[in-house]
Each structure stands twice: as structure tokens, then as C-alpha cells.
Amino acid sequence: MTVQPLRVGELRPNQLLHTFGVGAVADLPNLSVVIGGLDDWDLAKSQPVREDRLLAAVRRELGDQVEALRTPPHIPETSDPFAEWSRVGVPVRLFPRWLRCSACNRLAPVESGLFKLQPHAYSPERIRYIHECRGRGGNRPVVVPARFVLACERGHLDDFPWMFWVHGGAVPEGGEHTLKLQERGTTGEAANVYVTCSCRKDNPGGRSMAPALGPDAWRRLPACRGRDPHLASFSECGERTRTLGLGATNSWFAMQLQAFTLPRADDELAQKVIENWGDLSLLVPLPDESARGLLPKLNCWQDLESFGVDKVLQAVRRRAAEADDDEPADERDLDTPEWEALTRPDPVDLPDFTIRKERAPQATRSWLNEVVLAPRLRRVSALYGFTRIDAPEWDVQATDTSRRVRLSREAPTWVPCAETRGEGILLRFHEGRIAAWEQRPEVLDRQSILRLGHERWRAQRKMSPGDWPGMRYVLLHTFAHVLIRQFALECGYNASGIAERIYARSGDRPMAGILLYTAAPDSEGTFGGLVSLGRRDRLGDLIGQALDAARLCSSDPLCAQHDPRPHGRLFGAACHACLFAAETSCEHGNHYLDRALLVDTVTDADIGFLAR
């Protein structure tokens, strides 16, 4: 018998990459579900997204079998709750499978048949399970998900072993074993949460959940069974398990790659021809008459129709003549092409990439080379995996692939992505000034302190030494965080809606700059508030105010005195009160920050790049 799937809620496309992606647990009003693997997504209702540089980077991580980036399946909503749109979406599975009655505290798996699903076609958020125990007032009480689950560092996720726990690891004897999950205090702490069994043999008063938490709890818990609920599969594992609260923030960490859409031609038609060259190249060997007949039948025609057949065909012929002269580019290098596009001397005006130069404010010209305003930017983000327990390393190459959880049962042929459009400001530093600062003795002394913290941090995680990003990166990263805080006060965006891109590299092709851009996926990302701050009549004052705020932290002198070496930290003078930003804003997880490299602090002077 085929079971008709039920719609249980709504998520935005960006949430499927940042918060509730494949394998994540979504806590709905009355249900808790895990987002299903890519094998079960309906590609017929999904659209491919062209971003060649990003696709090449994803292939580097997952393999050449990845053919496309695609949006989540979607059909526009209508007023009919039973129309096709209500049956299209991202598949989810009930998790955890153990549920608790909110009236009688009965704890049982959904397979027991004790709980009944109560659907609601018009309001999917009201779908729930109920228990026939008749709670207060004779109403059928709502059944809620059990509070705890199990996870391991290899990314497996499982129901908490309630029967195992309440019986102290012993196999319960025959007879009825009715479990209850109760709170015996008012604080909600795990020590006040007890599991009891009707047999009352091993623990007559029930067993507290407190011993199931903490660093040594794995000794009292079963080894991991290798369960992947998002794939409905099990695998060999046997690793130590850890108890997590349902909805814990460390139960899912996204692994993403991001790229901006860059101009590859000087006009819009030529740009679109290059973007759709995979389809349009079929026209090259055909005579004009045959090409004109085939062009409207290609999948990309909708993107080109407004230009007309003749103009498109002419652009295809020009592209074919130029293609032989193209130099092969390393499409896996995401930063260099972006830097070159953003710092090109001429303005660009394309639908997905518009830049223009703005002269640097007078007070900053000794160290700020130029300001580039970008009223239109398009960013594409792709999800290629996730981890649990511990976040992935922010350097893709440094992350242990054994911790990365797969998105599908088979090697994926596509990965989900999301697009955001917004605006940004690029601040380009004087290369000579920043190169000279890097060689100052006091800066080299500070580098030795930060680098020892970096090496100890890697050693604690059993990672090989190296991958120090350099003082240039730490300086520019710190400056970006200082400006994000100041810009959020002035431009109308939330601080979490402003993201950063750091371009920091020495050598033959140096880069020294920061891009601050809006990362919001809705209309907030396009109303011009950020670009307006880049005008020289405003930017100079904002930078001055940001630097003044960075000189003193409300946690000083503790913040300024922080030494990263003893405990292996990746930051110096930095904390939540002065520099740390939302995880949607920071590209490096609030690592590699130090106010002392930018300005004078209460404990360090004459080190900062912009010290008085």
C-alpha cells in the first residue's frame, strides 16, 4: 500500500543549507523530523543552477560524478491545499522515533501503535501525534518527541537507548515493560529527568539522565550502531556515543562552498552565451538555417529569448571563434578570479555583477588604495556534506573526510544550492604598506604567540602542523569584523545579514582586501543601504568610529591580555563583546582575530597597523 506523504511545515531555501540541511533535525511545533537524503528528492521539480567555478570546487571534494548544482524542489503555492504544490518539497522522516505523552508521560516508539497521527491539511504545522490516555479535561493529549538522542563523532545519529538505560545495560526479562519519562523538579536539568520502567526491577525509583551526559558518559552507553536516519540506513561503526539534547546546536554543522557570479564578457548577451555554452555549442557545426530552427528548442532559450534568434546566433558564432584562444583556468581557485574581477579598472554593469570605483576618503589614503562599490552581486552556496559533535574546520582541506557525513546513499550526482543577491563594498589596502607592516619586529613577535596557539589547537585535534593563514589574514579579518559591527549600526541591515570575504595573499600575485556584502536572501539584500556607506563622505567617519570602538573592549583588560598559547586558541585580543560575529557573517568561525594587530589596546601598543 502506498502511503500519501504529508506536508509538515515550511523552510526557506537558505535554511536548507545553513540550518536545516540534509541530515539535520528540524524541531516543528509538534513533531521533530530529520531532512532526508538526496536520493529521495524530486528532481523533476528542481532547477539546475549554473556556476561553473563552484561546481568545479564541489567536484574536487565529492568526485567528478557530480553533474549539477540544483535548487530544492518547489512549485508556487496556490489557494488549494490539495493541489500538486502541497505534495512537492523536501522529504523528511520522523526522528526521534521515541515519543512521550505530554499527559501521562508514557514513553514508547512510534512503531508500538500507542500513538495516533492526527493530520491537518490546511495547517501542516498543526500535524501531531496524540495518545488515547485522555488527559486533563478528557482531551487527547499531544505526544512530543523524546528529549535526548545519541550521536558519534563520525556523524551517526540514533534514538537514545531508553530500555537499555533504565535497566542499566541489562537485557530485560519477559513481561510488560512500560516506560515513562518524568521531570521531578522545576529546573529542567537532566538530573531531574528520570526514566522508569513498570517492572521496577533494576531501578525501582527510575534512573536519572544525568549520568548519560558528560565526558565519561560513553562508558555507560552502548557503542554506535552506525545509523543514518536521513538515509534510512545502518553501517559498521562501534565508535563512542554521546548524548545530545534534541535540537542541540552541535547536532549538525553544514559544510559549504560559496562563489560569486563573475563577468566573463563585457555585455549581457555575451555573458549569457558563455554561461549557457554547454547547450549553445551544439549550434556551432550547424549551418545558420538549421541553427535558427534548433535554438528555440534548447533548454537555455528561456534565458536568451529576449535578445532574439539572430543576435543570439551571432553571439554564438563570435564565441566559437574566441573559444580556441581561451587560456585554461583553475576553476577550483575561488578567490583569485573574484579578486581580479572586483579590482578590474573599468566599471561593470551586468544583472548579477555591477561594480564602480569610489575614491578613498582623505584620512585613509595612506593605507587604503581604493574602494569598490558593488550595487549588484550574486552568490551561490552549495552544501556538500555535514558533521556532528564538532564543527568542520573552516579550511576545507584541513577537515578530516572521515567526519564528513554523506548526503546520499550512493555517490551524489548533484548537490543542493541556494542563491542570494545583494550588494557589497570592497576595501583594497596598499600592498606596500601592508607588506612593510608584516616585517616589523614587534609584529613578528606577536605572530610567534598567535602561531603557537594555532599549532597547539591543531595538535589537540590530531591534525598535522601547518596551514597558518599569516598575519596579513588575521589583520584583514579583524578589520572586517570591526567594520561589520559599525556598518550594522548605520546601514539598516542586521549584523548577521552582512558577510565577509577576505582576500589575503603574499607572493607574486598578492591580494590585500576585504569584501563586506549582504548575505540576506530576501528583499533586505537589495535596498542599497550598504553601498551608500562606501561613499567617501561617509566611509571615512565610519572607519574612524569603528577603530575607536575597537581600542577598548568592555571585557578589558581580560580580553586584551588573552594569551592563545596555554589552551590552544585561534585568537588573541578578541571576544564576544568586541569582535566575534554571527556564524552567517564570518567565513572562518570567529578564528584568527586580534585587535592588537589593528589598533592600540590597553596592554599592547605600536603593533597595530592603524595604531595612533
Q: What does this protein structure show overall?
A:
Residues 479-579 form the MrfA-like Zn-binding domain. The chain has 3 domains: 15-41 and 90-251, no CATH class; 262-323; 352-597, no CATH class. Strands 3, 4, 19, 20, 21, 22, 23, 24 and 25 form a 9-stranded mixed sheet that branches. Strands 8-9-10-6-7-13-14-15 form an 8-stranded antiparallel sheet. A 3-stranded antiparallel sheet has the order 1-2-5, with no helix packed on it. The longest helix has 20 residues, at 441-460. The chain contains 13 helices and 25 strands. The protein is α+β, with helices and mostly antiparallel strands and 612 residues long.
Task: Please summarize what this structure is.
With 612 residues, the protein is of the alpha+beta class. The protein has helices at residues 15-18, 52-62, 162-166, 268-275, 277-280, 288-294, 301-304, 309-323, 335-342, 431-438, 441-460, 471-490, 536-551; strands at residues 25-27, 32-35, 48-49, 68-70, 92-94, 98-101, 106-109, 115-118, 128-131, 142-145, 148-151, 157-159, 179-183, 193-197, 207-208, 227-228, 233-234, 242-245, 253-260, 348-350, 353-358, 368-387, 414-429, 498-505, 511-518.
Shape summary: globular
Structural category is: alpha+beta
Strand residue content: 15-25%
Give the averaged pLDDT, no decimals. Answer: 86
Which stretches of 5+ consecutive residues score pLDDT under 50? none
Quickly count the domains: 3
Number of strands: 25
Number of helices: 13
Profile the largest sheet: 9 strands, mixed
Radius of gyration: 28 Å
**What distance separates the N and C termini?**
76 Å
Helix content: 10-25%
Pfam family, one: MZB
Domain MrfA-like Zn-binding: 479-579
Organism: Actinomadura violacea
Biased composition (Acidic residues): 323-338
